[in-house]
């Protein structure tokens, strides 16, 4: 697997979570209360600027879905190991409205996520 390239979006940012499977996996399925191991890259919808990437750090990351932003909690379950999924996440399901403590608050985000394992 290689780091995904995210195409610059066209049109206005969506107001709801958009889930798009780029590759369907054939392994175990991610469940809402489970843990996942992923590789991912995240960019800002408006600028295309990359703000985070496990690929750039050279290692995957593991975590329980419950501890993540709502866009991931709602967008990853049902995904299968070996799959690649793109999530376009509005601010309400990411880091909240502009003016919140996070530098990504108020921004629509795009993540491409490779599901490596579930636990």
Automatic annotation (TrEMBL):
Its EC number is 5.2.1.8. Keywords: Isomerase, Rotamase. Transmembrane segments: none annotated. Belongs to the FKBP-type PPIase family. Residues 33-119 form the PPIase FKBP-type domain. This is Peptidyl-prolyl cis-trans isomerase. It is an enzyme of class 5 (isomerase). GO terms for molecular function: peptidyl-prolyl cis-trans isomerase activity. The keyword Hydrolase does not apply. InterPro entries: PPIase_FKBP_dom (IPR001179). It catalyses: [protein]-peptidylproline (omega=180) = [protein]-peptidylproline (omega=0). The keyword rRNA processing does not apply.
């Amino acid at each position: 697997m290689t780091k995904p390239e995210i195409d610059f979006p066209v049109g206005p940012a969506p107001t709801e979570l958009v889930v798009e499977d780029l590759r369907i996996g054939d392994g175990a399925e991610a469940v809402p209360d489970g843990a996942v191991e992923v590789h991912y890259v995240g960019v800002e919808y408006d600028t295309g600027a990359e703000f985070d990437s496990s690929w750039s750090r050279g290692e995957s990351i593991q975590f329980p879905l419950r501890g993540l932003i709502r866009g991931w909690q709602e967008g990853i379950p049902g995904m299968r190991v070996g799959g690649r999924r793109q999530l376009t996440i509005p601010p309400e399901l990411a880091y909240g409205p502009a003016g919140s403590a996070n530098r990504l608050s108020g921004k629509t985000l795009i993540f491409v996520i490779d599901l490596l394992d579930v636990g």
